[in-house]
Write the structure tokens for this entry.
Amino acid sequence: MTDPYATSTHDPGSDPGRDPARDPGGVGDPVRDPWRSSMRLALREAARAVPAGDVPVGAVVLGPDGELLATGYNEREATGDPTAHAEVLALRRAAAELGEWRLPGCTLVVTLEPCVMCAGALVQARVARVVYGAGDEKAGAAGSLWDLVRDRRLNHRPEVIRGVLAEECARQLTDFFRDL
């Protein structure tokens, strides 16, 4: 059996983790399905935060061609850095990989809706799109509590795709907080 986490790139043409039971007609969700394999990689990154006591949030940045540029997971507890959110770390690493702070055409895939700080960072980085799993009604800034990323007053507004593997992403967070 193949490991659905083994892929490190976004392949819109296939997703080994697609559940035919939820999609018996094979139609699927053309907006969310192409991002499922990348979200699985972000979920795996999120799990890396737990041993240090960090909230399990994971992020990946994909280049314009869909190739994996960088990953990140929450490291606030591990580093004592309040800005060490998964999204910020992944954006920093992607910028270092490209040698450029602007990330046009890139996609940020993250397990939890970005907060205000992270939403601001992805707007400033000129990311083309943000894809997230679980919504965050208490602090989300990509459509739940605020919609910073699509504010018309800003000079850059990335596309937002929400709810990719939302149940799996939410379950990972719920399990973490239940076990505290």
The radius of gyration is 15 Å.
